C-alpha cells in the first residue's frame, strides 16, 4: 500500500481507523516480511483488528448480515416466479 499525503487527506475518519489496524506494505520486501511473520504466528495487530471489527464494523452482526442475506434470497426467488 503506497500512501501519499494527498491520499491520506481524502480518507474519512473510518478509513483512517481501518488503515491503523493493518500493516503498511510499501514494497516486495515488506510483503515477504509480513507473510513470514504471520506464518510464524507473529501478528502484533491481530488483536487490534479483531477489536476494531467487533466495535466498528460488526455492529448488529450477525442480525444485519442475516437480514441482507434473507432479502437477497427472497428477491432472487421472487424474480424466478
Observed structural traits:
mainly alpha, single chain, 81 residues
Architecture blueprint of SSEs:
Elements: H1 5-10, H2 13-20, H3 28-39, H4 46-57, H5 63-80
State the separation between the terminal residues, measured CA to CA: 46 Å
Q: Supply the number of helical segments.
A: 5
How much of the sequence lies in strands comes to under 5%
Approximate shape:
elongated
Order of helices and strands: HHHHH
Number of domains: 1
| Largest pleated sheet | none
Which residues sit in consecutive blocks of at least 5 with pLDDT less than 50? none
Number of strands: 0
Radius of gyration computed on alpha carbons:
18 Å
Whole-number mean pLDDT: 85
Alpha-beta content class: mainly alpha
Helix content: 55-70%
Describe the structure.
The protein has helices at about 5-10, 15-20, 30-40, 45-55, 65-80. The chain has one domain. Helix content is about 70%, strand content about 0%. The model has no long low-confidence stretch (mean pLDDT about 85). The longest helix is centred in the C-terminal third of the chain and has 18 residues, at about 65-80. With about 80 residues, it is mainly α. The chain has 5 helices and no strands.
Would you summarize the structure shown here?
The protein has 81 residues and is mostly helical. The chain has helices spanning 5-10, 13-20, 28-39, 46-57, 63-80. The model has no long low-confidence stretch (mean pLDDT 85).
